[in-house]
Amino acid sequence: MNADQFTTEERAGEVQGSLRVLWRYLWEVPYVGVLLIPNVVFALVPAVLYQLFMWLSGKLAECGSLAECSPVQIVGGIQLEPAIPLLSLLAVVVIIARFTEWCVIECGGQIATRGLLEKMVRGVGGVRTTFFDEYPSGKIINRLVKDADQLRATAPIRLGDSTASVVELAVTAAVMGIASPWAAAVAFPMLLFFFYVQRNIAPMLQRVLMLRSARFGEVIHRETDVIEGVRAFVLYGQLSALMGRLSDSLYRFMQMHFLRGTIEAWGRFLSDVGIALYGTGVLVVVCLGLHYGTLSPVMGVVVVSASFRLGSVFSWLTWSFGLIFETAGHARRVFEYVDLPREETEEGFVPPPREESPQVPDGDLRIEAYSMSYRPQTPVIFERLSLSIERNTKVGLIGRTGAGKSSLVQALFRMVYVRSGDIKVGSESILAMPIEQARSLFAVVPQDPYLFEGTVRSNVDRMGEFADEQVSEALNAVQLPLDLSANLLEGGSNLSLGQRQLVCLARVMLSRRPFVIMDEPTSGVDAITDAIIQGVLRDALRDRTIITIAHRLETLARMDRIIELEHGVIVRDGTPSEIMRVITPEELA
Ligand SMILES: Nc1ncnc2c1ncn2[C@@H]1O[C@H](COP(=O)(O)OP(=O)(O)OP(=O)(O)O)[C@@H](O)[C@H]1O
Ligand SMILES: [Mg+2]
Fold first, then answer.
1. For residue 79, what pLDDT band results from cuts at 50, 70 and 90?
2. pLDDT digits (tens, 9 = 90+) for 473-525
3. Ligand 1 centre and the CA of 406: distance in Å?
4. Which of 162, 409, 443, 523 could be a cystine partner for 513, CB 3.0 to 4.6 Å?
């Protein structure tokens, strides 16, 4: 798929409202919702105290001088020290309330969001493997790393900030309404204007943020290309073309940054115009009130300071709404991964819950009128395929490229979309088993094995179930006497392809899985190593059923049976001598 295009989920996300996504976030991480309640209380304290602060300041100014300013004049009869310590105390309380508000939402919220991110990783881990064919790597990395982390870091604090701003707005408007209903009335058109601006700016911003995220995924995708493909491009003298592609996608990403900045600046400009008009309106109301004696100078101070406060809260709300939409975008992308269909569900086979049988099913492998495709909408690969493989036989699977050999292996591992039919081991359907149990029947030596960074021992005995002697014995059997504590690099890159296959074979020997699948490379191992592998199959693995995707005549000669596939259909099936008579070496290559 082209990284420039949006996926279906992204297109669907366009119509999904940001507020709905944020609501879901609060629902999924209820702890953040609960934290918003003390956050509102802590936000109320500074909002109320600020107004009291202004009122006291006005009173203080009215006194003329500190000496004349008796405490009685200030707080109506309660004996207090002069106003300055009281104002200082209020300032300290405001700071403490603000800090507590921040601590509650920031620290608590981040811990709470962790569970959601775990769900996201589980969502990706439980998805069908063909998902990775369709999604560019940059997009997946972008979501798992950037979106997840941004959501963790920003969602609680931005939601907390926005609710605090709304509380402050309500308190300030209420105080202004008490001080001068006319001044409060002037705020009404500003409120309408603010919502009008938001209604127009928000969808634009949401869309551009979505585009920006897609572009960022594309940048990571191209960077992965550079890392993976740099050798080939250097070899053909095309490095500048590779770099050019990366720079193009970076440029497209920067364009979205610029567009976002432009939209935000336009939104802020409109809000500032609204705030300036509103400030002028309030000043006119205050001047008229003072002129006609309907407003005392102290209340005038309160109204003017409240109007400034209201203006800055509006300005902050415009800003924080933009941030909230950005957070909603991260949340939407995280939820898409949380909601990814699990592979069992997508396959159409949801086995009823049942006790996992302690007995590993063993017996003949029977594929019965089995039809499959990789996804529901992609072409059918096998159409009513029937095949029976007797227990403990060694089967060679051959066929031209694209014949369906690897697809048959994928089918056994239940990594494809089953349309009809069944696959049984003995009398048990592997399609009706829990997926982990079905997969535990098969051990595999892949064509291009990926080993994990760590010791040789941890790669041969993944679960740490076997003694050192058993692990060494398995390595000796495949004639790869590596030191158990030797370190392997990421992917096993400090071993040759053939050696990596031998490590896998040693792993298969230790596992007691009744079926072994070998995807033999044409050039990974030499004739001597091939003979070693065949010896292991004959001796150590003699009591297992082995299916080998084989290309070498020597390998095929040692099989009990050979099956040839062509376009998903069995075209030949017989003993090596029967098949060798009719097949040419070119057909195997
Ligand atoms: N992940 C996939 N998604 C969709 N179609 C696929 C996928 N993998 C393989 N196919 C299709 O399945 C068919 C059989 O491919 P398969 O990989 O099984 O061939 P093969 O016999 O293993 O070939 P080769 O010898 O080249 O490895 C091909 O037509 C291929 O296009
Ligand atoms: Mg293949």
1. very low
2. 999 988 888 888 888 888 888 888 888 988 999 999 998 899 999 887 555 57
3. 6
4. 443
Model pLDDT, residue 323: 83
The residue assigned the tokens 């939402």 is 105
Residue 342 burial class via C-beta count within 10 angstroms: exposed 0-12, middle 13-18, buried 19 and up: middle
> In what helix (H) or strand (E) does residue 437 lie, and over which residues does it extend?
helix 435-439
Strands (E) located in 331-441: 365-373, 380-389, 394-398, 417-425, 428-429
- Tell me the pLDDT tens digit for each residue of 347-397: 665 555 555 555 667 789 999 999 999 888 889 999 999 999 999 999 999
> For residues 204 and 197, what is the distance between their CA atoms, to the nearest angstrom?
11
What is the CB < 6 Å shell around ligand 1? 130, 133, 374, 378, 381, 399, 401-407
CA dist., res. 476 & res. 536, Å (int): 11
Atom 30, ligand 1: residue with shortest CA distance: 402
What confidence tens digit (pLDDT) does each residue in 554-589 have? Answer: 778 888 999 999 999 999 999 988 887 777 666 655
Q: Give the atom of ligand 1 at the shortest distance from the alpha carbon of 133.
A: 1
Residue 69 and residue 78: Cα distance in Å, rounded? 14
Do residues 318 and 199 touch, judged by C-beta distance below 8 A?
A: no
Lowest-pLDDT choice from 47-51, 123-127, 329-333: 47-51
Task: Please report the pLDDT score of residue 566 as a whole number.
Answer: 93
Nearest CA to ligand 1 atom 6: 374
How many C-beta neighbours within 10 Å does residue 279 have? 17
Look up tokens 């300013």; give the residue: 69
Q: How far is CA 301 from CA 110, 248, 340, in A?
A: 40, 56, 57
- In the chain, the domains with their CATH numbers are 8-344 (1.20.1560.10), 392-406+432-588 (3.40.50.300)
In whole angstroms, give the CA distance from residue 474 to residue 414: 28
Q: What digits encode the pLDDT tens for the residues 102-119?
A: 787 777 777 777 888 888
| Predicted TM-score of the model (pTM) | 0.69
pLDDT at 389: 95
The ligand 1 atom at the shortest distance from the C-alpha of residue 568 is 14
On whether the CB atoms of residues 415 and 343 are closer than 8 A, the answer is yes
Of all protein residues, the one whose alpha carbon is nearest to atom 24 of ligand 1 is 401
Ligand 1 centroid from CA 137, angstroms = 20
Q: Measuring CA to CA, how many Å separate 240 from each of 22, 135, 243, 323?
A: 43, 26, 5, 37
Q: Are 389 and 364 contacting, i.e. CB atoms less than 8 angstroms apart?
A: yes
Strand, helix or coil at 299? helix
